[in-house]
Design brief:
Two copies of one chain form a homodimer. With 343 residues, chain A is α/β, with parallel strands linked by helices. Chain A has three domains: 5-48, 434 Repressor (Amino-terminal Domain), CATH 1.10.260.40; 62-159 and 293-323, 3-Layer(aba) Sandwich (Rossmann fold); 161-291 and 327-339, Rossmann fold (3-Layer(aba) Sandwich). Chain A has helices at residues 5-12, 16-24, 31-44, 50-57, 73-88, 102-114, 129-137, 161-174, 190-205, 222-233, 250-259, 277-281, 293-309, and strands at 62-67, 92-97, 119-122, 142-145, 155-159, 180-185, 215-218, 241-244, 269-273, 287-290, 320-323, 326-328. Chain A binds a DNA duplex (16 and 16 nucleotides) through helix 2 and helix 4.
DNA sequence: CTGTTAGCGCATTCAT
DNA sequence: ATGAATGCGCTAACAG
């Protein structure tokens, strides 16, 4: 059905291997034959069969991306960026969604390995470190992102969440806020822990006593934000600002504030973590700490490609990279009148 | 490095072909050997190599999904559903994003064909009908979705946009609205045309004279909604309701109404097309016509799988499927007091 | 620089 | 029911 190397070779009256070399581009053939074969191949509409090539070379031109979902805005951006970058390099992306579930992650990794992916970008659950390490040690370069799998020593690209949360909190403090609530994700995740840490550090440095009642740790769901927000607004001493460091929770927080008739930022300042297109369109436009999903994805691709090229033995020290967070101020935070803003 | 069929065969003291048959499951081996080989394979951790198998069988266990982006909520759902369904059937999804660009679509289709995908689900741009037809006629079953490529006769799964737009418009009419604006997508798309048609039909049936000034045709971007909304609100005779049938435009519409201090639904009723998670969390919760992205995706997968199984000659009549739209009323539309609601 | 040969891992035909 | 042999399309030694 489809035209093979053999067809091209016959048409050109050369051996299959000559055809292979001429088209393979390694310069292993005379410029003449190279041009001639290229032309004939084009005329015949020859397209190399990656499967056959893969069987021989052990490579597939396939790269796996394993993420938790496509609801989270960061994952959407990551998937788009990774696929765009890879396409330009003539790789194809196998997108796998494993819902933060260790069992699914395990199965998916096995299947991806079966398919001989040339590399893997993974947002790990943290429960399959051994498997990841084995794959990487084997033949599949792996780059982790967003979360660190504590059981591994793999190359990892992370957001600088300690810094991001610190910068965000400091911004609110600078605006004069003293009672700053934090809604943050599960503490068994890198981001959950680090954002809480950054928040605490900023408070400490500002000499603000920490208040457990202002901190709500929850899941990555809108409902978490609703529950947290109700709890916070029912406090005797309400917070004047809420830092929603758990992206998915924003929806719940916004809903509850609307239901209670609170105006943002007049009655309550709101700062969120991770951008999503509608934050900028929302009125008031929502200020954020941008964790840099796009740059994170680009860096992960860079690192992975590097690992793939440098088929060399990986030095035992797998590096960890951090992409700095950026504060993007829009209109959802206001300065408290009674205090002179600092910094 | 990895354990092959040969290893299993040797360990079991049988020939490679026996091993292949025993594990292949076709019942071509005695129940005894079958069990024994299965056990040994498991013990050795044997996993068949899809690339080798693919070279032999001409199949890859790969299925391509070609969509425009991951920003649109429907595409997100489609990608998630397709990948989940396929994974369960031991297929892998090659996700390709071609941004509604014919050139990219062309290249991507070629690459996907190179990789010998076993099937393809495509949201077509409409400019590469010949290529799609050729692929489908060749060896790659194709199912189109969301949009119809007029130059082809491929199996196509569409939303019932004429009905959806009709139902939505009728709902607003029933609420007593007479000046109903429509923001809708480009007319060179299936959904753009059909939603406009459905809207017009509902108006006509209700005996409401169409008003060109109330119809805004634009691109699939938030900005379209902003432009449209400003234009509509500046009209001498303002609409009492806006039907935003162009999903991406909602952001712009919401922004402009907020800036003008309009309360929804008191000052203006708002009905949107296609659901997205935050519509339900938004206050007021936004009423929608749900085009059924999830069911659309499931049906597309069903049809594709069917085509793949039935390797038979496709009857020349490729069928078109429609998934009905559903009105989901929440809180963004109100009944006009002066009129008794009908139907 | 080019042709010949071998083999990647597996499914399948043909014998037995 | 099983074994031996063949080839999918391509790359990579190895010769010449």
């Amino acid at each position: 059905m489809s035209v093979t190397l053999k067809d091209v070779a016959e048409a050109a009256q050369v051996s299959i291997s000559t055809a292979s070399r001429a088209l393979g581009g390694g310069g292993l053939a005379s410029a003449q034959t190279q041009q001639r074969l290229t032309r004939i191949a084009r005329e015949l509409g020859y397209r190399p069969n990656p499967i056959a090539r893969g069987l021989k070379t052990g490579q597939s031109r396939l790269i796996g991306l394993l993420i938790h979902n496509l609801t989270n805005a960061s994952f959407q951006v990551i998937a788009e960026v990774v696929q765009a970058r890879l396409k330009a390099l003539d790789y194809q992306m196998l997108l796998c969604i494993a819902g933060d579930d260790p069992q699914q992650e395990r199965d998916t990794l096995a299947t991806l390995a079966d398919h001989r992916v040339d590399g893997l970008i993974v947002v790990p659950t943290g429960k399959n470190g051994a498997q990841l390490t084995a794959l990487d040690a084997g033949d599949v370069p792996i780059v982790c992102m967003i979360r660190r799998d504590e059981d591994t020593n793999l190359e990892t690209v992370l957001a600088d969440d300690p810094q991001g949360a610190y910068v965000g909190t400091r911004y609110l403090i600078g605006l004069g806020h003293r009672r700053i609530a934090l809604v943050v994700g599960r503490q068994d995740t890198t981001s959950g822990r680090e954002r809480l840490a950054g928040y605490n550090r900023a408070l400490r440095e500002a000499g603000i006593a920490p208040d457990e009642a202002l901190i709500h740790i929850g899941h990555f769901e809108p409902e978490t934000g609703a529950v947290a927000c109700r709890k916070l607004l029912d406090l005797a001493e309400r917070p004047s600002a809420i830092f929603v460091a758990n992206h998915e929770s924003v929806l719940g927080v916004l809903q509850v504030t609307a239901e209670r008739g609170l105006t943002i930022p007049d009655d309550l300042s709101l700062l969120c973590y991770e951008d999503t297109p509608w934050f900028a369109w929302h009125r008031p436009a929502i200020s954020i700490v941008d964790s840099g999903a796009r740059d994170l994805a680009n860096l992960a691709v860079d690192r992975l490609l590097h690992r793939i090229e440098a088929r060399a033995v990986r030095a035992d020290g797998a590096r960890e990279y951090r992409v700095g967070a950026r504060l993007v101020t829009r209109d959802s935070c206001r300065a408290l009148p009674a205090c002179e803003p600092k910094a």
